[in-house]
Design a protein that fits this description.
Elements lengths: L2 E7 L5 H9 L2 E7 L6 E6 H8 L9 E5 L2 E12 L6 E8 L6 E10 L5 H4 L4 E4 L3 E6 L8 E4 L8 E3 L10 E2 L8 E6 L6 H9 L8 H4 L3 H11 L15 H5 L4 H9 L1
Parallel strand pairs: 1-4, 2-6, 7-10
Antiparallel strand pairs: 1-3, 2-3, 4-5, 5-6, 7-9, 8-13, 9-12, 11-13
């Protein structure tokens, strides 16, 4: 499917110029690569946003119309506003028909509901990756790669090297790698007995505020024991005991005899 997009050369550059451009409903961008110099461009916000909602726009050779000239390009990067949903900036790369490109291609999973693992054994299809890094010539770039899960049983998987890739398309893998693409797994079922048992298990005991803090009465009792002889229960630490307040034993009795 051929996708066309319109752009214009952008003369003003810099943060301020880009901000003013966005206020007018346009998006700043750049076109680079090939044997030509990089060109700063601008595109219509609404048109660009509609293209970005199309899956094929992200993994296809695009036709960029730039001031009457036509360029074959790839979408390389774009930035979105964090909450407004507006495109802030976009990058395109020129392609040469005789030079291989490196792209991420979306995976389309089919026939999972017909597989023995799902239909007969009650399993669940699990998509481990949703896109695949490939390398190929621009004319061989597929819009998507199909993953047939129709033969999988529970516990069985499809690996990258088992995929049927279009002619001229090769996966980008590290030496010895063969990652899992999709599998059928046994769903985890929680029975009523297991739920009841889980509810019956007491939660870990956490000391309450009252338990965590020493009892006030216990503190008072400890203080009383540490008080001087004759001190009354509840006297604050440092208070003089009754004996201290009255002087040494026998002093008052001697004073009374002398008065008589």
């Amino acid at each position: 499917m051929k996708i066309e997009i319109n752009a214009r050369k952008r003369e003003a550059q810099g943060t301020g110029a880009s901000r003013r451009l966005r206020r007018t409903g346009n998006v700043p961008g750049i076109l680079y690569g090939g044997n030509k110099d990089a060109v700063t461009i601008e595109l219509n916000q609404k048109e660009l946003y509609q293209h970005l909602t199309n899956e094929a726009f992200h993994a296809s050779i695009l036709t960029l119309k730039l001031d009457g000239a036509v360029e074959e390009v790839l979408l390389r990067a774009f930035n979105m506003h964090p909450w407004k949903g507006h495109v802030q900036h976009i990058d395109f790369q020129r392609v040469s028909k005789d030079r291989k490109i490196h792209m991420k291609v979306p995976l389309h999973f089919v026939n999972a509901e017909k597989s023995p693992g799902v239909k007969e054994q009650g399993g669940v299809a699990n998509h481990v990756i949703n896109e695949l890094d490939v390398t190929c010539l621009p004319d061989d770039l597929p819009g998507f790669i199909e993953v047939d899960m129709g033969h999988l049983g529970i516990g069985h998987s499809i690996h990258v090297k088992e995929l049927k890739l279009p002619k001229g398309v090769e996966p980008v893998l590290h030496k010895g790698d063969n990652p899992v693409v999709a599998t059928v797994i046994q769903p985890v079922l929680v029975t009523e007995e297991e739920e009841t048992a889980a509810e019956a298990v007491p939660a870990a005991e956490v000391p309450t505020t009252e338990q965590a803090q020493p009892d006030a009465a216990a503190e008072a009792a400890a203080g009383d024991k540490a008080a001087k002889p004759g001190a009354k229960p509840g006297d604050k630490p440092g208070d003089k005991s009754a004996a201290d307040k009255g002087g040494k034993p026998g002093e008052k009795a001697a004073e009374k005899k002398e008065k008589k």
